[in-house]
Design a protein that fits this description.
By secondary structure, the chain is mainly beta. The chain contains 3 helices and 33 strands.
Length: about 425
């Protein structure tokens, strides 16, 4: 299945290219430099209870959660002039990291049964006519692009809206990321919702309602791990919609990978060591589950060079794990957990780097651990990440068979020189 249409014009499931490592583990690349949101819903029964409608944001939703879980979506086309205007569609679906639900601007939607499910929203933005953008006639802003109405709304009272039709440029997403970096960390209220109120004169007013954050919604900005420099948990930029739900904004420029680790006990068979990239890992899954990470500082000259640390954690969409280049890491207990990685390049020559080959694999019990010279950090421009994502899109478009991500080993050749060898195999098809 590449695309599955859903009876409302433009409403559809799109397949995402993926790679498999073994029978259950799946890797889903998302080659984009644009702003992406991780939406969390808590673990108690969750239902929106009302429709939400966007004029200028087209949602691209990938649902992550237990394979047995079922959720329901409800949709109404509210676009002026649409051939499916006010058509209603209801679907039941299970979470699946290898497909995304596209909800066009102007299609109202609500979901039930999203508890235990996390949503990746790689939304697309559409702008009003250019002549309105820089005037007081501009009817649209991303932060308030939401119209809510009850599920019980009568057919004759359903809204009908003009939607934005001009696709936003790359610069728009860059500016939006900058804006969220500057503002989201300072929010002390939940994401607003709208309600209509009729005053004594019969005039309808739309109210924007905000609620102040509770103490339990505040998260530590940084939590270091065991005195290994640069290793620790960093708070995401968060927007809450209630006590348990909201979204985390991923505003970095690098491409994203989603890794599903399956349902059976999961552990890596080797340490992974990046020499040029910093991992930025968000783990989502059952909040009571405990997973384990083993670290070794393999940075030559580091104050903690050679130090080994074992760290336990539970998955949370509220923060990401920062693993600097040269810090080896190995995981255990990631079954039922999804890892979302948006890595950040720290050093190296971009012209010689092939994605997926930056990681070295080191046997778990082999000692002494290796030691590497890590280049001083440098910044890579947005143009580099854009070129990288374009190359990844091209690679994924040409891929004709599922292959695993490579294992990169250090080996010695006949003259004693150390070489890197990347091993990749055709992965077994799912099912």
């Amino acid at each position: 299945m590449k695309t599955q249409e859903l009876d409302i014009q433009g409403l559809r499931w799109d397949a995402l290219p993926s790679m498999r490592n073994g029978a259950e583990s799946v890797v889903v690349p998302m080659p984009t430099t644009d702003l992406v949101h991780i939406v969390y819903h808590g673990e108690l029964p969750f239902a929106h209870g009302r429709y939400g409608l966007h004029r200028g944001l087209e949602d691209h939703l990938t649902f992550l959660g237990p394979l047995h879980k079922k959720a329901r979506g409800y949709f109404i086309d509210c676009r002026t002039g649409s051939p499916t205007l006010h058509k209603k569609v209801a679907i039941e679906f299970a979470p699946d990291a290898t497909r995304t639900l596209v909800i066009p601007c102007g299609v109202a939607h609500g979901f039930d049964g999203l508890e235990e499910i996390y949503t990746i929203n790689a939304f697309r933005a559409f702008l009003p006519p250019p002549q309105y953008l820089m005037t007081d006639k501009n009817p649209w802003a991303t932060g308030t692009d939401i119209i809510n109405f009850p599920y019980s709304t009568a057919d004759e009272a359903l809204p009908e809206v003009e939607v934005n039709t001009y696709p936003a440029s790359e610069n728009f997403y860059e500016l939006l990321s900058e804006m969220q970096r500057a503002t989201l960390g300072k929010l002390d209220y939940e994401f607003p919702h709208t309600e209509d109120m009729v005053d004594a004169d019969g005039k309808v007013h739309t109210l924007l309602i905000k609620k102040t954050l509770s103490p339990k919604q505040h998260v530590a900005e940084w939590e270091a791990i065991a005195d290994i420099e640069g290793l620790g948990w960093k708070k995401h930029l968060l927007v809450w919609s209630n006590d348990v739900a909201g979204y985390a904004a991923l505003t970095d420029n690098g491409p994203i990978q989603i890794i599903g680790h399956g349902e059976r006990h999961y552990m890596t068979d080797a340490y992974g060591i990046h020499l040029e990239w910093e991992d930025r890992l968000t783990f989502v899954g059952p909040s009571q589950q405990r997973a384990t990470i083993r670290f070794i500082d393999c940075r030559k000259g580091s104050p903690s060079e050679g130090k080994e640390v074992t760290h336990e954690f539970s998955p949370s969409a509220l923060r990401m794990l920062i693993i600097p280049p040269g810090v080896a890491h190995a995981f255990e207990g990631l079954e039922r957990i999804f890892t979302i990685n948006r890595p950040y390049r720290r050093s190296g020559d971009p012209d010689r780097f092939e994605p997926g080959h930056d990681v070295l694999d080191w046997p778990l019990d082999k000692r002494p651990a290796p030691s590497f010279d890590i280049a001083p950090p440098r910044e890579f421009p947005l143009s580099y990440y854009r070129a990288l994502t374009e190359a990844q899109r091209g690679y994924l478009a040409l891929q004709t068979e599922q292959v695993s991500t490579p294992a990169v080993l250090l080996v010695r050749d006949d003259d004693g020189s150390t070489k890197r060898v990347a091993l990749r195999h055709i992965a077994p098809a799912s099912g």
